[in-house]
Amino acid sequence: MSQRTYHHGDLRRAVLSAALDVIRAEGPAGLSLRDLARRAGVSHAAPAHHFKDRAGLLTAIATEGYDLLAVALAEAPELRERGVRYVRFAFAHPAHFQVMFQPELLRGDDPELLAAKARAGKELQAGVAGLAADERGPDAQLAGVAAWSLAHGFATLALTRNLPVDAPEETFRALAGLIFQPPAAPRQPPAAPRN
After folding, report:
1. CA 189: distance to chain centroid?
2. What pTM was computed for the model?
3. Which of 86, 136, 160, 193 has an alpha carbon within 20 to 30 A of 124's alpha carbon?
């Protein structure tokens, strides 16, 4: 039996894994279904059976990424640690991270993608909801955007080596502590001496 007609045990996973390898090395622009089929040792039409086209493949990668991110965020007890988990996710899954936030590459109306994005967003918002009112300010939604921006921006800068850091999780934890902390209690004037 030639390699071209070999029945692959889990073709979908094999193509996803090969695609993640390509994205890590070359970015999403380097993806070709024909090349992925060659890497998986199947006919050039086989990946299209699972993904239809390149956008379908990238959408599946983004969906998987959002699901992984939701799980990572849910394991953290509070917002700062959820941010640390976000950064950890970005470093552990850089190919997913690259694809997830490029909507022009994805099928934005894909129900599985939308559900996975909603799960990840819910976990981020749960961290904001756990903040005391004086930590999040009057607008919890805006605090959520600030938290996400901090974690995403930091992870992106560190991954692209625009922000050289040796210990990304510890550095992020310190940054988050500077921004999301309760305001200092107002100083009480010293009591007047009693005569």
Report:
1. 47
2. 0.83
3. 160
Cα–Cα distance between 195 and 192 in angstroms, integer? 9
Which domains are delineated in the chain? 7-51 (1.10.10), 62-179 (1.10.357.10)
d(CA 171, CA 150): 12
Token output for 182: 């309760």
CA distances from 67 to 75, 97, 114, 123 (A): 13, 12, 11, 11
The pair of three-digit structure tokens given for residue 32, joined into one six-digit string: 């070709």
The string of pLDDT tens digits covering residues 44-65 is 788 888 888 999 999 999 999 9
Given a contact cutoff of 8 angstroms between Cβ atoms, the answer to whether 73 and 127 are in contact is yes
Q: pLDDT for 69-102, tens place per residue? A: 999 999 998 888 999 999 999 999 999 999 999 9
Q: What is the largest CA-CA distance in the chain?
A: 104
